[in-house]
């Protein structure tokens, strides 16, 4: 797949280097290696379509003022047969380049030819990447952090996939350890309270108080009655957990599917214990001299790998810690299953765990650089400009299910990706349901629907879009047309940037800007004009814009309506 921006930058870099060599050959510049320079896209199109700082960074190497160097470069540029029509010198020596009509025509043609593949690149080289996200505790429903993490993780996975990586989406089921013990105790208390009353059976202070615990207990009673009343407490808790946990996991799965998230793999933590993987990870650390024994427990030398303190791997009672299981899990990802890179999406409250887990990957011989963690900040629900707390039957926290009862899924997925993960997100409940251009997802979807309306209106008059030539696409020279084409051309680079920076919010920003430029074009340039060739070129541009709108919305799993 083509990348018009990157290809133009590479071509321009070659042209500048050739001009420097030519200038040196006739004495306009001294012989010497040109320093590394950058080619960028100016914020203001009046300053060109591309700009280079080659003259600015070469002053020391060539012992000349940047302006003189720039003049020498421009004098020796050979733009014939390239995608550039002219170059200008600005200020003290900036080089501004203006793309030819051929380049703009090619960008439109790329989108029309590649269609749903447009924007995809081979940047990632097929490297195997796992993105693990949400991984909500299966002892209760998903909350706002999980909702945001779901949108971020799924959007990031989509960006990585489009950037040429082989991507797996994974949900880690925390079905072992203390939280499952607490889950069993909570279920048992609600079970016994049903028969004996709340006064006779106090609920544990640190138990799970959500209404879902009571529901699961009542469901079990409806099926089996009081069969567990006389059972051994450990057996009673085990039976209740074995009934309730799969139900909770299935609820997580169904809620996520409603949210348009499907995982390639649901990986249970319990499998690491059952397979011996946790024990093997501990033994590997021991064999590498990374552990020691103290007070009957096995400790990992975390301070030797950037940790603030050493960590317990196996408690004095012989049970491994959650950290030991976490090491085994990431060893499983990167060694057993052979992923080149593991990316975890975590809440910001886990920031202290990042360095110690990356350090543990170094200690176990995997390499901390093969693990990256995206930390996301909190979500604040806003209504009428003020923080808002929704009161729902599921308990004190607002759940994903609660939110999707009140907010369209399209809006939820778009809004949760409106800010980079490291920024706190204010989720405007009023704006999310508003059908106006102030609502960014509505604004983008309306651009897509408006293009469908254009084609429908033309079809009603017997006019259909036909194939257009490069010469016809070169007629698209109005500033509003060029602005729209520049944005279309930018998609492959934006996808790569979203993948490299682990920031799918770039995609929402990109598509809002694309919609803005389309709406400006629609206002400035009538599609139905007497010049049939220009009319067809503008219809082609409309279709290219619609393809790109649809591609980005599809990546974010947001609908692209034909009518609104």
Task: Describe the 3D structure.
- Helix 5 packs across helix 21, helix 6 (144-162) crosses helix 15 (409-416) and helix 7 (178-196) crosses helix 9 (233-258).
- With 564 residues, the chain is an alpha/beta fold.
- The longest helix has 26 residues, at 233-258.
- Helix 13 links the parallel strand 11 (341-347) and strand 12 (371-376).
- The two termini are 32 Å apart.
- A five-stranded parallel sheet has the order 7-6-5-11-12, sandwiched between helices.
- The chain has helices at 4-25, 54-57, 59-62, 66-75, 101-114, 144-162, 178-196, 211-224, 233-258, 269-274, 277-287, 322-336, 351-363, 400-406, 409-416, 429-433, 440-460, 470-473, 479-500, 505-524, 532-555; strands at residues 39-40, 50-52, 84-90, 94-99, 128-132, 166-173, 265-268, 291-294, 297-300, 311-314, 341-347, 371-376, 379-383, 386-387, 425-428.
- Residues 391-395 have low confidence and may be disordered.
- Helices cover 51% and strands 13% of the residues.
What is this structure's SSE topology?
Elements: H1 4-25, E1 39-40, E2 50-52, H2 54-57, H3 59-62, H4 66-75, E3 84-90, E4 94-99, H5 101-114, E5 128-132, H6 144-162, E6 166-173, H7 178-196, H8 211-224, H9 233-258, E7 265-268, H10 269-274, H11 277-287, E8 291-294, E9 297-300, E10 311-314, H12 322-336, E11 341-347, H13 351-363, E12 371-376, E13 379-383, E14 386-387, H14 400-406, H15 409-416, E15 425-428, H16 429-433, H17 440-460, H18 470-473, H19 479-500, H20 505-524, H21 532-555
Parallel strand pairs: 5-6, 5-11, 6-7, 11-12, 13-15
Antiparallel strand pairs: 1-2, 2-4, 3-4, 8-9, 9-10, 13-14
Helix pairs in contact: 1-4, 5-19, 5-21, 6-15, 6-19, 7-8, 7-9, 11-12, 17-20, 17-21, 19-20, 19-21, 20-21
């Amino acid at each position: 797949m083509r990348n018009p921006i990157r290809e133009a930058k590479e071509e321009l870099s070659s042209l500048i280097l050739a001009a420097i060599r030519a200038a040196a050959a006739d004495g306009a510049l001294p012989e010497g290696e040109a320093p590394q320079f950058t080619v960028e896209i100016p914020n203001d199109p009046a300053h060109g379509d591309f700009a280079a700082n080659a003259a600015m960074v070469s002053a020391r190497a060539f012992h000349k003022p940047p302006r003189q160097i720039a003049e020498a470069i421009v004098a020796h540029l050979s733009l014939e047969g390239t995608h550039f029509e002219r170059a200008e010198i600005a200020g003290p020596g900036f080089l501004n380049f203006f793309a030819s009509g051929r380049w703009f025509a090619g960008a439109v043609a790329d989108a029309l030819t590649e269609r749903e593949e447009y924007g995809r690149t081979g940047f990632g080289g097929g490297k195997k990447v796992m993105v693990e996200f949400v991984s909500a505790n299966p002892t209760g429903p998903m909350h706002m952090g999980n909702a945001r993490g779901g949108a971020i993780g799924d959007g990031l996975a989509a960006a990585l996939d489009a950037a040429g990586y082989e991507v797996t989406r994974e949900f880690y089921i925390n079905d072992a350890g203390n939280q499952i013990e607490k889950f069993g105790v909570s279920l048992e208390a609600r079970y016994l309270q049903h028969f004996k009353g709340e006064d006779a059976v106090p609920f544990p202070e640190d138990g799970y108080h959500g209404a879902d615990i009571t529901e699961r207990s009542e469901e079990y009673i409806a099926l089996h009655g009081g069969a567990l009343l006389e059972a051994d407490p450990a057996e009673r808790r085990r039976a209740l957990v074995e009934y309730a946990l799969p139900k909770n996991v299935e609820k997580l799965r169904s809620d996520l599917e409603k949210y348009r998230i499907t995982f390639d793999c649901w990986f249970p933590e319990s499998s690491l214990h059952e397979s011996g993987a946790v024990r093997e990870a501990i033994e590997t650390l021991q064999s590498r001299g990374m552990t020691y024994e103290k007070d009957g427990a096995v400790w990992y030398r975390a301070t030797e790998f950037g940790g603030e303190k050493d960590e317990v791997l196996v408690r004095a009672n012989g049970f491994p810690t959650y950290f030991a299981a976490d090491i085994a899990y990431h060893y499983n990802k990167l060694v057993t299953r052979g992923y080149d890179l593991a990316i975890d999406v975590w809440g910001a409250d886990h920031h202290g765990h990042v360095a110690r887990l990356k350090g543990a990957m170094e200690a176990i011989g995997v390499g901390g650089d093969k693990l990256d963690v995206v930390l996301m900040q909190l979500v604040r629900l806003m209504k009428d400009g003020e923080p808002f707390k929704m009161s729902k039957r599921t308990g004190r926290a607002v759940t994903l299910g609660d939110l999707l009862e009140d907010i369209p899924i399209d809006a939820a997925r778009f809004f949760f990706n409106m800010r980079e993960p490291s920024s706190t997100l204010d989720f405007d409940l009023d704006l999310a349901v508003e059908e106006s251009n102030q609502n960014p997802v509505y604004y983008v979807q309306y651009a897509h629907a408006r293009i469908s309306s254009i084609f429908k209106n033309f079809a009603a008059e017997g006019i259909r879009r036909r194939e257009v030539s490069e010469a016809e696409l070169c007629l698209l020279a109005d500033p509003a047309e060029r602005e729209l084409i520049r944005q279309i051309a930018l998609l492959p680079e934006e996808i790569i940037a979203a993948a490299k920076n682990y920031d799918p919010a770039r995609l929402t920003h990109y598509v809002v800007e694309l919609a803005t430029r389309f709406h400006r074009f629609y206002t400035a340039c009538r599609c139905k004009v007497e010049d049939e060739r220009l009319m067809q070129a503008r219809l082609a541009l409309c279709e290219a814009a619609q393809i790109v709108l649809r591609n980005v919305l599809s990546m974010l799993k947001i609908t692209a309506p034909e009518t609104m």
